[in-house]
Amino acid sequence: MKLTSDKIIVCGPCSAETREQVLRTAEGLAAAGVGCFRAGLWKPRTRPGCFEGVGAEGLEWMTEVRRTYGMRIATELNTARNAELLLKAGMDIAWIGARTSTNPFDVQDIANALRGCQIDVYIKNPIAPDSALWLGAIERIERAGIKGRIVAIHRGFCSWEKDVFRNSPIWSVPLWLKEQRPDLPVVCDPSHIAGKAHLVPMVAGMALSLGLDGLFIESHCNPSAALSDAAQQLTPEEIGHLFQTLKLTE
Ligand code: PEP
Ligand code: MN
């Protein structure tokens, strides 16, 4: 399948777990028309004792994905201390997670570490619905004069009230950002909003119908065995179907 839309599409597992899992997932996603592969190497876990990612060891698996399937590669830049590693590996995209974009000190350290570098930076909304804090994180990266492109990601907001979603979308926030900054692409991460695989297609459809600029979605070759976010990942085949339904591929 081939992507026929100009939407920004990034797909891949929550975490890189093994070389085999990374390559198998990438193979399926490449067949579904996905050109950009995400996988977390350092995982921000809410409580200690869970799988915290394979770390730098997974960089080689990611560069193998690029060599083998010609995909661009993306991972979370969790701290400025790892910036050099990503730059050396030629990572195409570094994303800043929701917990990090909440802290201006951390975002500024990352901005300083990437100053003038050739890398795309995707910035997730902070955990709480503070639209100025999200825009501030974007501005800090912009002021670092990176050579790649900057993209905002709406991944929903943490709420004390339990609703059907894991992180409630507040669509007026990404729409406000688009109004403030018509030049800035704003995409949606329906996986961390939905929290459950069966809700992901609906959230993805909502995001596109509201005019957001693309999707950043989790996909795993064997979701039920995933070491993080098992409940919300789609198989590469399900991603292929979803993209057909959303008329993103032919
Ligand atoms: C992720 O993308 O796997 C992730 C940890 O996301 P967030 O920062 O949105 O929670
Ligand atoms: Mn995840």
Descriptive report:
- This protein is α/β, with parallel strands linked by helices and 250 residues long.
- The protein is built from 9 helices and 8 strands.
- The longest helix is centred in the N-terminal third of the chain and has 13 residues, at 19-31.
- The chain is globular and about 40 Å long.
- Bound molecules: phosphoenolpyruvate and manganese (II) ion.
List descriptors:
250 residues, alpha/beta, two-stranded parallel sheet, 8 strands, binds phosphoenolpyruvate, binds manganese (II) ion
**How much helical structure, as a percent, in the residues?**
25-40%
Q: Given the C-alpha coordinates, what overall shape results?
A: globular
* Heteromolecules bound: phosphoenolpyruvate, manganese (II) ion
In total, the number of strands is: 8
N-to-C CA distance: 6 Å
Runs with pLDDT <50, length 5+?
A: none
Strand arrangement across the biggest beta sheet: 2-3-4-5-6-7
Quick check: average pLDDT?
Answer: 97
Please provide the ordered H/E string of secondary-structure elements: EHEHEHEHEHEHEHHEH
How is this structure best summarized?
With 250 residues, the protein is an alpha/beta fold. It has helices at residues 19-31, 59-69, 83-89, 104-114, 131-143, 172-180, 190-194, 200-209, 236-245, and strands at residues 8-12, 36-38, 72-76, 93-96, 120-124, 150-154, 186-188, 214-218.
List the helices and strands and how they pair.
Blueprint: E1 8-12, H1 19-31, E2 36-38, H2 59-69, E3 72-76, H3 83-89, E4 93-96, H4 104-114, E5 120-124, H5 131-143, E6 150-154, H6 172-180, E7 186-188, H7 190-194, H8 200-209, E8 214-218, H9 236-245
Parallel strand pairs: 1-8, 2-3, 3-4, 4-5, 5-6, 6-7
The structure holds phosphoenolpyruvate and manganese (II) ion.
